[in-house]
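Internal ticket #5521
Category: modeling
Description: The requester needs a full-assembly model to guide mutagenesis choices. All entity lines are attached below as received. Residue total reported by intake: 763.
Assigned to: D.W.
Attached entities:
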Amino acid sequence: MTPLLSTCRQSAAQALRLFAVLMLVTGLAYPLLVTGLAQLVFPQAANGSLVTVNGRAVGSRLIGQSFTDPGHFWGRPSATAGQPYNGLGSGGSNLGPAHPDLQAAVAARIRALRAADPGNTAPVPADLVTASASGLDPHLSPAAARWQALRVARVRGLAPQRVLALIEMHTERPLLGILGDPVVNVLALNLALDAAAGS
Amino acid sequence: MTQDLFLLTLLFLALLGAMAWPLGAHMARLFSGTYAWQPRLEAGLLRLLRLNGDDMRWTVYALGVLLFNLIGLLVLYGLQRLQGGLPFNPQGFGAVSADSAFNTAISFVTNTNWQGYAGESTMSHGVQMLGLTVQNFLSAATGIVVAIALMRGFALRAAAGLGNVWLDLLRAVLGVLLPLSLLLALALAGLGVVQSLDAHVTVALHGTPGSTQTLPLGPVASQEAIKLLGTNGGGFFNANSAHPFENPSALTNLLEMLAIFLVPAALCFAFGRLVGDRRQGWTLLAAMTLLFLIMLAVFFAAESSANPLLTALGVDGHAGNLEGKELRFGLAGSSLFAVVTTAASCGAVNAMHDSLMPLAGLVTLLQMQLGEVIFGGVGSGFYGMLLFAVVAVFVAGLMIGRTPEYLGKKIQSFDIRMTMLALLATPLLVLAGTALSVVLPAGLAGPANPGAHGFSEVLYAFSSAANNNGSAFAGLSANTPFYNTLLGLAMWFGRFLVIVPVLALAGSLAAKKAVPVTSGTLRTDTGLFVGLLMGAVLIVGALTYLPALALGPIAEHLTLFGIH
């Protein structure tokens, strides 16, 4: 029994020393080094990729925002905790495909979209009525943006072609043609829309 | 749409091969100690830390692994409970509850990274760095050293020991995981993953004048890198790799998927070199890749079909199932990620698995239930696949009436018993845990979805925990004392009831002499053996889990599409 016990005690002491050193290296030195380098070399990206208008931060290029007035493009439904597009409560709906609540939510979103745009009878693009995974998706599909173009043009008093051209201009193409799908950044599009409507 | 997936998968596998090959060569040299700079540096480190550098028998090696992990468990539990008084806590978070801290400590020590909590509203930067990031490294290192020990079991001849556990852990962390993480973390930070010690930043909203949005910050990129390279999968934020600050673009998505498979694929190459027969490594890699492609095809077929209940409401269905997905990755990038993360026992997610179509959910479930051997976790996937290789040669040996051998080592009674112990531990935990939870009131309170899908949520939780994956059908309310405790136990035993028998097997094999190859030896570097190995994996998995899967995703699929 004694040799076994002494092996255990020696091993435990060695494991503890090794653990302590590796903890300091991986838990303190490593993240602080990365923080220092990232802040030095990529300050914009490392601090949230903020978008500024007239020197004021109005959002992040990467994080979606809630737009609900008919004169702006609406983003995707958001299931974040508390309220839509809550930056501190990321998450999806976690509704399974057969859950009755999913059907009810989608039906309600379709009603709201149609109420704001009674003449539009085209099938609704799926991304416009389904909640994203993070609840913070900053994008729409080009189809979902175009689906809203006439409504936005009418409310803003802009020519539909002008609005469609803005969508085209803000459509991001997939890298190498294969990485991702074409998407439209909703905040960027709405900022461009406001600039166009103001001019 | 199918073409998108085809091209993306091709690019992914080509890049994976190009990176895993040199890494495998590096790991084979590193763990053999044959770099010229190694002996002096390692002797110095051992002396500095006062570590005994002797060759260890398997029992001493296993004791070292267990003690190292036990210390990690206690430290991580303590850090969470004392969070309120620790530094790097700009949000002022208090202590984590006892049951949640217990669950999370086990979760991160066992490389599972199941998360009952929401990161951005629970864990301070200090605990994320000193607790979670540390265990991301150390649990991955544990997997690597166990895999290396088993490789040595086959490579060594009539040897008493398996190597030195302290030295192997140092090599895994400092020689593999840390340099890779540093590179990936900086790449991610440059592409938009946040890396800051501030709590958050508040912006004035453009759409609604007067209102604001608070964006979370933190040392995310550094944790993200090792979260994926170590197949840990625990997100800094609740939405994990679906969060734009963890995975901002299709490019970062590609890097993250590559990071998940990199070390598991490299271990196959390292294995071929360590046993002196590179074709043996290619054979394992081929079986893994073929199984992976089959799973991916089924998954994508399910996800690109529209949900019939939504098209009936007037939704345009041609884009596939977008509930719980992020648009920037595309359906191909979301599908590939989901299949990668459940094939490897990573558990990071870039889409919400709870909202997958039923048969796509089935693929994720099945991959975990097969024991996480299709690439699998860092180290654990490799030693899991070797266990199936032992089963395959055993079954083949029975068929042709010869004593089974693998890589020149006779597979005898003790070896088979250890193999079966390791292979049967996790199914027992999954099925018993699920059964218990669907009869007890505390378990029945968990599921968020009604019917068959609710059952799938529970089955997914135990499949994920016992196989150390960590992803979830996240609708399940699992942050309760009942689930925190039961899933915690499933994670712990699912990890160490495999590791200890694997080390015992390694010790037994290392002690054997090699038997000469004859014309009657079953070759294990052929297409036939790839087929045998895939058969062993699929048959054991299917026999064990088909009844449970029929009650969950299969029943749901039939209902959803009105098939009677």
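Resolution: model delivered.
Comment from assignee: Chain A has a mean pLDDT of 95.
Ticket closed.
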